[in-house]
Design a protein that fits this description.
- The complex is a heterotrimer of chains A (526), B (283) and C (337).
- Helix content of chain A is 32%, strand content 21%.
- Chain A is α+β, with helices and mostly antiparallel strands and 526 residues long.
- Chain A has 3 domains: 136 residues, Dipeptide-binding Protein, domain 1; 102 residues, 3-Layer(aba) Sandwich (D-Maltodextrin-Binding Protein, domain 2), CATH 3.40.190; 220 residues, Roll (Dipeptide-binding Protein, domain 3).
- Chain A is globular.
- Chain A starts with a helix and ends with a strand.
- Chain B is an all-alpha fold.
- Helix content of chain B is 72%, strand content 0%.
- Chain B has 11 helices and no strands.
- The longest helix of chain B is centred in the C-terminal third of the chain and has 38 residues.
- In chain C, helix 1 packs antiparallel against helix 14 and helix 9 crosses helix 10.
- The longest helix of chain C is centred in the C-terminal third of the chain and has 39 residues.
- The radius of gyration of chain C is 24 Å and the shape is globular.
- Classes of the chains: A alpha+beta (526), B mainly alpha (283), C mainly alpha (337).
- Chains in contact: A-B, A-C, B-C.
- At the A-C interface, helix 2, helix 7 and helix 13 of A face helix 2, helix 5, helix 8, helix 10 and helix 13 of C.
Chain lengths: 526, 283, 337
């Protein structure tokens, strides 16, 4: 068919025209638009579960630490002093640790102009303790007194480190009492994107599941004003998409980049790849209610089957360190003297034989959305197979994994893999208590393990940590030893936080105490 | 019917169909003989090899290795198993259930017909795949649940198809006479109705096999189908997604397997349809 | 008229039952709504409190009645994970998906039918074979795979197109689109904001191509098959025998008779596109109903899931209804059945 007859057909002509048009669109180099001045563009997978600072207990912490402020911030591990003043400029505690006095900062205001005073602090703490998502952190709090506008006195029913608790990433924000009243009247008050904070940024616009735009609060107390007056954050569920948006220039910075991409990004001269300790670790619970997993020897044997080096390498893609128990490195009360299991499969097999275990079948569940777990759980299956234990692996959606585990302990999984982190930087009152303290209804203790001696150690340690940290640490260490010897869980690895930062920007260092957060006020062009 | 299929020559009627037949044979062969065909059978079945992660396609590993060091070619060969299993199981059960219900509805007529057809319509009122997605979400991810979810969506097509054919045949004079003569229902059904229904049924089954593989792959890609460490093509595409820009071979070849399998089934389905009645309009 | 009434009433029945099925699935199967609502740290106490807040402690029939009542009044519940009203979320996200479907469908119809007709005209020749292979490949291609491939090739390696998103993020600061109809690309044309139009189209190319593949193949095959069948009819031979020009025969007679079934199929494939958008939007991070649906499914956000299912069922019904109407208009024989 000749070209002439080809093009005489109107169809072909139509095709030709449209194709040319498409190609034209394709090859169009979109003129580089002038970057919106003072706009810092970010891509993250941090979804907003709620904008309510009292209820907040999830990934929205990424934004919250820019909009709200606690009384004080906890500094990253290794920095002195331990805390930075935020809405409180100084604080003291009584000798017995049961009374704490905070002096509030003069001139701090909420975004609507009303002052941050002791009444606001009282209202916030009372609300959080009563109905907060992380309200349990205020368990030791008996009452909040406001002797003057700039003084707050916390009276506790038992000694507790209120400086640590008041710096929590959840449940400790000081909220505008007007907002607290509004949400009491209408539970959905915040959800359209309103805030009652005092922080350097306020919510300028919010499109659920899509984007959050923060704009700088002009009257913030800090003398150093943020370089960027607008932070434009795109919510992107997939890490690879966020990464691509950064490398193609759509955004300036992306968080939650898949660990699998780090090797390539390291080679890219435009970015620095920085590793930090994070409070996240991976833990497996054994179902201690089910024979033969109720036998600690069996659990120890299973612990010795794992190739921890490979699991850490594959799960963490090289950014992890084998865990020592359930307390992540860098978080109190971590103890580097706590032993770890290492791979000893022959010994494990012998132990199983001696315990009379034959043809053991284990059901492992993990959250199918967690890509790290999806990567390393097959290694656990292989490890168990190597000592003659057959494992059935079930990846189910996180919500269902938990629902099933809590509903019927006797028939639930045999090994529950979970990624955990403490609500605030105390893994004694959180990890050690929440994960393994006995409870009648499974709370987080999905090993269903009940050990009175362990309970007492942890309870006593919690009581002491407000007044005598050293003594508390001793008790915690004993508790952690018990977790090692009794092995109600599998202690996999601590996951490092890996940040990819474009060299042209200077972004505040990751703070292990605020693991989900980014602090935008400190972002500068380097 | 016997004479029509005895000549399987339609499978080789032209180049394209021949290629498709060859591909389909490879696919079925891979599913059955995976342990013998795969260059690294243990890895294909799921065993990890942590020292070999992210190797690109080359001589030793023809299609490269995945994120756990497993040979990709072996994984793809083993992946033929869940694909074929789902295709046969879903279409098989859907056809059986649908045919049974369709026969009853078309033959009996009356209120049974009404109920069965209303129920079918109800299921068909959902866009294809949506019902499966919702069902498998609530049942929980996994191969078996995906299977159930797909069967739930698929049987109404067969019920409707068979019912139409059955009621047409039912009203034919020779059938009415047989019924009047007292010939038992089930003999009428088998002798007259089934015989006429078989052709469109086979054509529909052939057309559906490919579609089911596609649907199952889609479910697995989202994360609601087969779970690790099983080798499932859709799952493997999803696992390679984060690596698409650098370790591109994982998603690319796994998806290619789905594509070629579905393509071969579709081409053969076409050939089958042409063979039975080349003049039926493609409705 | 009676046919219309029949269709409407059965459509309503179907909707009722559809809502019932989704509702049952959501309530009967175990999952912990607290985890979607509060977050991974939700405690058993939170969960218990939440059940009461959400009304999950009431007997099932009561819950169902409340659900139907509220739905009819426009209260489609609140998404567990985003706390936004489900209906609002759907309305916000619908334009993006509809625009995507529009472009995908336009491409599929124009090129698919054109190719099919072309193949029929040159039946048996090389063009025909090539087009047939392309068409059947289109129907066999997994949408998510095609999306990833296009992304990798044209956005990753060749950087001709953006990999994700509906617009450049800079656009809302430099050339914001004023809202007229709510459909961004059309609004940008109406308001003369052509920088935005170009940017939008630039982002639209890959997702629309990916989404259109299946329909393109389907329509191509249908067009070709129908046209061939019509061309073999007797009246065509008669027309030719009478000396009517080939052009007249082809365009005036054959095409006109071959096209009505195409319209039916177009309607049906639009319905296929509804679930197709789930995968395409996920791969391209398109802010439409599809990605919302996938996220809702994965977080078992049952109010959102029920809302989307209802929407999809309604959309499907409406499309089928319209298609039937058009078909009836074009082919009066339908009335006689």
């Amino acid at each position: 068919m000749s070209m002439k007859t080809a093009f005489s057909s109107p169809r072909v002509r139509l095709i030709a025209v449209v194709s040319t048009a498409l190609l034209a669109v394709a090859s169009l180099s979109i003129p580089t638009v002038a970057q919106g001045a003072g706009v810092f563009k970010v891509a993250t997978s941090a979804a907003v579960t709620t904008w309510d600072p009292v209820q907040s207990f999830s990934t929205e912490a990424f934004y919250m630490t820019n909009i709200y402020e606690p009384l004080l911030w906890k500094n990253p591990d290794g920095i002195t002093p331990e805390y930075s003043p935020a809405l409180a400029t100084s604080w003291t505690s009584s000798k017995d640790g049961k009374t704490w006095t905070f002096k509030l900062r003069a001139g701090a205001t909420f975004h609507d102009g009303s002052p941050v005073n002791s009444a606001a602090v009282k209202a916030s703490f009372d609300s959080s303790k009563k109905i907060g998502g992380a309200g349990f952190i205020w368990d030791p709090l008996k009452s909040v007194e406001t002797p003057s506008d700039d003084t707050v006195v916390l009276t506790l029913s038992y000694a507790a480190p209120m400086d640590l608790i008041a710096s929590s990433t959840y449940g400790a924000y000081i909220v505008n009492p007007k907002a607290l009243a509004a949400v009491a009247a209408d539970s959905k008050y915040y959800e359209s994107g309103k805030d009652g904070g005092s922080g350097p940024y306020t919510i300028s616009s919010y499109k659920a599941g899509s984007s959050v735009v923060l704009s700088a609060y002009g009257k913030h107390w800090a003398t150093d004003k943020p370089d960027y007056s607008t932070i434009d954050i795109s919510i992107v569920p997939d890490g690879i998409t966020a990464q691509q948006m950064m490398t193609s220039g759509q955004v300036d910075w992306s968080t939650n980049i898949p660990l699998t991409s780090m090797a390539t990004l390291k080679k890219n001269k435009k970015y620095s790849v920085i590793t930090y300790k994070s409070p996240f670790n991976y833990v497996g619970y054994f179902n201690t209610l089910r024979a033969p997993l109720n036998n600690p020897v069996v659990r120890q044997a299973l612990s010795m089957a794992l190739n921890y080096r490979d699991i850490t390498a594959i799960g963490g893609q090289g950014y992890g360190t084998q865990a020592r128990g359930v307390v992540p490195a860098g978080i109190y009360p971590y103890d580097p003297a706590i032993p770890q299991y290492s791979m000893a499969r022959a010994k494990a097999k012998t132990m199983l034989d001696r315990a009379g275990v034959k043809d053991l079948k284990i059901k492992i569940t993990y959250a199918s959305e967690n890509s790290a777990e999806a990567r390393f759980v097959p290694l656990i299956k292989d490890a168990f197979a190597a000592i003659g234990v057959t494992a059935e692996v079930q990846g189910i959606l996180f919500n269902q994994q938990w629902a099933a585990a809590k509903k019927d302990p006797a028939n639930a999984q045999d090994l529950f893999i979970v990624k955990y982190w403490p609500t605030y930087s105390d893994a004694g009152v959180d990890n050690l208590w929440s994960l393994f303290h006995s409870s009648t209804k499974p709370f987080f203790n999905l090993s269903y393990w009940k050990n009175a001696a362990y309970d007492k150690l942890v309870d006593d340690a919690i009581e002491l940590s407000g007044s005598d940290k050293a003594a508390a640490q001793k008790l915690y260490s004993q508790a952690m030893m018990m977790l090692y010897t009794e092995a109600p869980g599998l202690y996999l690895y601590d996951e490092a936080q890996v940040s990819v930062v474009p060299k042209k920007f200077s972004i505040p260092k990751y703070n292990i105490n605020y693991p989900f957060s980014a602090f935008f006020a400190g972002v500068k062009l380097s | 019917m016997k004479t029509k299929l005895a000549g399987l020559s339609f499978l080789f009627k032209d180049t394209l169909t021949t290629i498709a037949t060859v591909m389909m044979s490879i696919f079925i062969g891979a599913a059955i003989f995976a342990p013998w065909l795969a260059p690294f059978p243990k890895e294909g079945a799921g065993e990890t090899n942590v020292d070999n992660i992210y190797i690109g396609p080359g001589w030793h590993h023809l299609l490269g290795t995945d994120e756990l060091g497993r040979d990709l070619l072996s994984r793809i060969i083993y992946g033929a198993r869940p694909a074929l299993l789902i295709a046969l199981a879903v279409v098989g059960f859907a056809a059986i259930i649908g045919t049974l219900l369709g026969l009853i509805a078309g033959y009996r007529g009356g209120w049974i017909d009404n109920i069965i057809m209303r129920v079918s319509e109800l299921f068909l009122s959902f866009p294809p795949l949506l019902l499966s997605l919702v069902a498998v979400t609530f049942l929980g991810p996994g191969l078996v649940n995906a299977l159930i979810a797909l069967i739930i969506s698929w049987w109404p097509w067969y019920a409707r198809l068979i019912r139409v054919e059955a009621s047409i045949v039912r009203s034919k004079p020779y059938v009415e006479i047989s019924a009047a003569m007292g010939v038992p229902d089930r003999i009428i059904i088998v002798r007259h109705i089934l015989r006429n229904v078989t052709t469109p049924l086979i054509v529909q089954i052939a057309a559906d096999l490919g579609t089911v593989i596609l649907a199952a792959g889609s479910l697995a890609f989202i994360g609601l189908g087969a779970q690790p460490p099983s080798a499932d093509w859709g799952l493997m595409v999803a696992q390679g997604r984060n690596l698409i820009f650098d370790q591109w071979w994982i998603s690319t070849f796994s998806g290619l397997a789905i594509f070629l399998a579905v393509l071969s089934f579709n081409i053969i389905g076409d050939a089958l349809r042409d063979h039975f009645d080349p003049r039926i309009a493609r409705q | 008229m009676r046919i219309l009434w029949n269709r409407l009433s059965s459509a309503l029945l179907v909707l009722c039952a559809a809502s019932f099925i989704t509702f049952t699935l959501a309530r009967v199967i175990p999952s912990d709504p607290a985890l979607a609502y509060i977050g991974p740290k939700a405690t058993a106490a939170d969960s218990a409190k939440l059940r009461i807040t959400l009304g999950l402690d009431q007997p099932i029939p009561v819950q169902y009645f409340k659900y139907v009542w509220q739905t009819l009044h426009g209260n489609w519940g609140y998404s567990l994970s985003t706390k936004q009203p489900v209906l609002q979320e759907i309305i916000n996200r619908l334009p993006a998906t509809l625009e995507l479907i529009f472009f995908a469908m336009s491409f599929a119809v124009i090129f698919g039918v054109a190719m099919g007709v072309y193949a029929a005209k040159y039946r048996g020749r090389l063009q025909d074979s090539v087009i047939r292979i392309v068409a059947i490949a289109g129907v066999s291609m997994p949408a998510f795979w095609l999306g990833l491939l296009l992304q990798m090739l044209f956005a990753g390696r060749l950087t001709w197109f953006p990999a994700t998103g509906q617009f450049d993020i800079d656009l809302k600061y430099d050339n914001p689109i004023s809202k007229v109809t709510g459909f961004p690309i059309f609004d940008s044309i109406i308001t003369g904001n052509f920088a935005a139009t170009v940017n939008g189209l630039h982002h639209m190319v890959l997702p629309a191509l990916t989404l259109s593949a299946y329909s393109f193949g389907l329509l191509s095959r249908m067009a070709r098959a129908n046209l061939l069948e019509v061309m073999s009819q007797d009246y065509i031979k008669v027309a030719r025998a009478y000396g009517l020009s080939e052009r007249l025969v082809f365009f005036k007679l054959a095409l006109r008779n071959a096209l009505p079934p195409i319209i039916t199929v177009t309607g049906l494939s639009t319905a296929y596109l509804i679930t197709g958008t789930f995968f395409v939007e996920q791969v391209y991070n398109w802010p439409g109903i599809g990605s919302f649906a996938v996220n809702s499914l994965l977080s078992i956000d049952y109010p959102a899931i029920m809302g989307i299912t209802l929407l999809a069922a309604v959309g499907y019904l409406v499309i089928n209804f319209i298609v039937d109407l058009i078909h009836a208009k074009l082919d009066p024989r339908v009335w006689m059945r």
